[in-house]
Automatic annotation (TrEMBL):
InterPro entries membership: Ammonium/urea_transptr, Ammonium_transpt, Ammonium_transpt_CS, NH4_transpt_AmtB-like_dom
SUPFAM superfamilies: Ammonium transporter
Name of the featured protein: Ammonium transporter
Domain annotation Ammonium transporter AmtB-like: ranges: 24-438
Biological processes annotated in GO: ammonium transmembrane transport
Membrane protein topology class: Multi-pass membrane protein
PROSITE patterns: AMMONIUM_TRANSP
Organism whose genome encodes this protein: Musa acuminata subsp. malaccensis (Wild banana)
Location, primary (coarse class): membrane
Keyword presence, tRNA processing: no
NCBIfam families recorded: amt
Length: 466
């Protein structure tokens, strides 16, 4: 089938296509995709107990694949298509048609195909982040149902409301540069809510849950950090000045947050924790996300100080005092690292957003102004309104995810159990998948069954002495 003549000028591209922007957007999308596969696949598979390594990694891999299919068939249009409601787009199956994919997208100087791919990797990483709250006990079959349902009835509503030009919160002026609300606050609240309905891990796992490979945890964390270059750098939909400053701010905030968390761990617990440093890295990445291209570098450093300390306090101090949080088993503390950090970033965006940088992203709209600059400019009312809108966005995302996630979990529970059986919880990967992460001894024997395992150490030593 030949392409329409309008898409085939002499240079082989339509006049509206900017090849540089298109190349950067595809690169940025791939960087974000690498955060999930292999980034979070590696991180999840290594930060949990050995018996949960395969299941945890596979939850992330499955979600990435399932979201791609759902996104291309109906999800993209529900998040960025014609409005069905002020907060939701109309489902439309024409996304995979050549005419739609090769036409200019609603943003950027490139085709819809690029936008579908770019927005897919953001949609995919969100349920993968939710999985971090559920590792070590959720029924994999329930997870298979949860991912497409949550994407359809929660993610698309948040994305349409805050990111679509037709969304009511976008029109109201809520600032979310790259997903502090749509992705991180959503995953933090949905993860906590789903963890409540699924129930806790077995007591033994909850009391002691050591990583099975800290070096691989750092590998996954490194992919997550560097992949964030595309996460925030791709948000302006162009290879422009806003993308450049967003990338610098992202890494400044992250490094600062990591160091602050590290110093707090050393001061209060006497030892520098690798896992703590990873948590501080994540909170820095999350906090800067809604503000990345809208604040000055000095503001990004301030945000790093706060993202390395406030989520640390909520996780290490408040979590142990609030009965509800103590009751809910949030395996990787996603509520703190994404929910709290995402909210913090959204509020700080409303305070520190520079109107000059806002113009690079939002255009000549004077209503976008951080409170600090608004007061300096004698426009305190505009700044207070912006803070109000930031809180309104937080409230909407929290309410949306508590309600929708609860309904989804209760519906799934009618079909399959949300939680694994007691036998499966005790055994882990071998009972669920029939596979073991580290079958490396002898002829594929696991560590526990080899002469290197603790249970066989005494008999092996006796034989050696004899």
């Amino acid at each position: 089938m030949s392409l329409p003549s309008s898409l085939l000028p002499s240079e082989g591209a339509p006049e509206w296509l900017n090849k540089g922007d298109n190349s950067w957007q595809l690169t940025a999308a791939t960087l974000v995709g690498l955060q999930s596969v292999p980034g979070l696949v590696i991180l999840y598979g290594s930060i949990v107990k050995k018996k949960w390594a395969v299941n945890s990694a596979f939850m992330a891999l499955y979600a990435f694949a399932a979201v791609l299919i759902c996104w291309c068939i109906w999800g993209f249009r529900m998040a960025f298509g014609e409005p069905l409601l002020p907060f939701w787009g109309r489902p439309d199956a024409n996304v995979l048609e050549q005419k739609f994919l090769l036409a200019q997208g609603f943003a950027g100087l490139y085709p819809n195909a690029t936008l579908v791919y770019f927005q897919f990797v953001f949609a995919a990483i969100t349920p993968i982040l939710i999985a971090g709250s559920l590792l070590g006990r959720m029924n994999f079959k329930a997870w298979m149902l949860f991912v497409p349902l949550w994407l359809t009835f929660s993610y698309t509503i948040g994305a349409f409301s805050l990111w679509s030009p037709n969304g009511f919160l976008f029109k109201a002026g809520v600032m979310d540069f790259a997903g502090g609300y749509v992705i991180h606050l959503s995953s933090g609240i949905a993860g906590l809510t789903a963890a409540y309905w699924v129930g806790p891990r077995v007591a033994k796992d909850r009391e002691r849950f050591p990583p099975n490979n800290i070096l691989l945890t750092l590998t996954g964390a490194g992919l997550l950090w560097l992949g964030w270059t595309g996460f925030n750098g791709g948000a302006p939909y162009a290879a422009n000045l806003a993308a450049s400053i967003a990338i610098v701010n992202t890494h400044l905030c992250t490094a600062t947050s990591l160091l602050v968390w590290l110093f707090l761990d050393m001061f209060y617990f006497s030892k520098p924790s690798v896992i703590g440093a990873v948590q501080g890295m994540i909170t820095g990445l999350v906090c800067i996300t809604p503000a990345a291209g809208l604040v000055q570098p000095w503001a990004a450093i301030i945000m790093g100080v706060l993202s390395g300390s406030i989520p640390w306090f909520t996780m290490m101090v408040l979590h142990r005092k609030i009965q509800f949080l103590k009751k809910v088993d949030d395996t990787l503390a996603v509520f703190h690292t994404h929910g709290i950090a995402g909210s913090l970033g959204g509020i700080l965006t409303g305070i520190l957003a520079d109107p000059r940088l806002n113009r690079l992203f939002f255009g000549d709209n004077p209503s976008y102004v951080g409170l600090a600059y608004a007061i300096k400019m004698g426009r305190a009312t505009a700044g207070l309104r912006q803070i109000g809108m930031q809180f309104a966005g937080i409230g909407f995302i929290i309410a949306l995810n508590v309600v929708i996630t609860s309904v989804i979990c209760l519906l799934i529970k009618v079909v399959v159990p949300l939680r694994l059986s007691e036998e499966e919880l005790l055994v882990g990967d071998d009972a669920i998948h029939g596979e073991d992460a580290y079958a490396v001894w002898g002829d594929g024997e696991t560590y526990e069954k080899s002469i290197h395992g603790y249970e066989n150490f005494a008999s092996a030593k006796t034989e050696e002495m004899a």
